[in-house]
Amino acid sequence: MSRILLATHGGHGADGAGRVASLLAQRLHASLDVMAVLEPIPLMEMSPLAVGGMVLAPSPEQWVALSEELRASVAAQLHRCHVADAAPVITRGPRALQIADTARTSGASLIIMGLGSHGVIDRTLGGETALQLVQIAHTPVLAVPADAGALPRRVVVAVDFSPTSMCAARAAAQCLATGDVIELVHVAPEGLPSSESGRGVASGARLRDLASQFVVPSGVEVVAVELEGEPARSLLAYLDSSAADMIALGSHGYGFWKRLALGSVVSKVVRLATTAVLVAPIGSIGVPD
């Protein structure tokens, strides 16, 4: 992992992302790029830019003023989070598209962004950009809670043996160091025959074989865990009962049914987990680590 992209809005809700991005870049000796997106939003009718019920676009001068205000907010955040030697780049446009495009053109191996506080409403709003990114990006996305102040020490990886879940596992492993733990967790759905659900001796042997061969930094412990039940609910319950401070999982694509699957697992985890969440999108398969 040679380049990390911190995508921020400069507010306190992204401070955890700033701290984690700085620490991870130091650990991996990676370059850290910082960006913020000035996203055009619908203006309220009472806005001074609304005339006779018709909304006017900001003037070039107003865009400049807004950009400088955002730049100042990001600079203040970088100072709070002890992020050194990083000059923020301000872009304009749809936030998720701008972040995904910047990550692609810069060759970033990981996007780090804020996830807001643990409040349900804040968490839901904070996770929307992350979920949008997962659908269009070619780069793993790490969404970090506002109060995070250290790198993860114990990581749960949701393993369904798909290419994206393995990509998520590899990305998560790179964040760890000696003494840390990575748990490869497979959730078998209830009520299906073993041949369909992947349960039983074959599934367990496959998971243990994966754990024994999984490449991690020196001194990192790998643990294999088998669960049963509805995937999102089982993963969230396991997180609540464990000491994990990050969960990693893969998405499965963009088609209609695939998006339903994304909504039922990744979306629930992003919005409800109390830990950092790393998601590897389908586009990240084959992208160099």
Structural overview:
- The protein is of the alpha/beta class.
- Helix content is 41%, strand content 21%.
- The strands form two sheets. The chain has a ten-stranded mixed β-sheet with strand order 5-2-1-6-7-12-11-8-9-10, sandwiched between helices.
- Strand 1, helix 1 (15-28) and strand 2 (31-38) form a beta-alpha-beta unit.
- Helix 4 (120-136) runs antiparallel to helix 10.
- The longest helix is centred in the first third of the chain and has 21 residues, at 60-80.
- The radius of gyration is 20 Å and the shape is globular.
| Helical/strand content category | alpha/beta
The residue ranges in which pLDDT falls below 50 over 5 or more consecutive positions are 193-199, 254-258
User: Strand arrangement, largest sheet?
Assistant: 5-2-1-6-7-12-11-8-9-10
The rounded distance between the terminal residues' Cα atoms is 5 Å
Rg, Cα atoms, Å: 20 Å
Percent of residues in beta strands: 15-25%
Question: What's the main sheet like?
Answer: 10 strands, mixed
The helix content, as a percent range, equals 40-55%
Note the total helix count: 10
Q: How would you describe the shape?
A: globular
Total number of beta strands: 12
* N-to-C series of helices and strands: EHEEEHEHEHEEHEHHEHEHHE
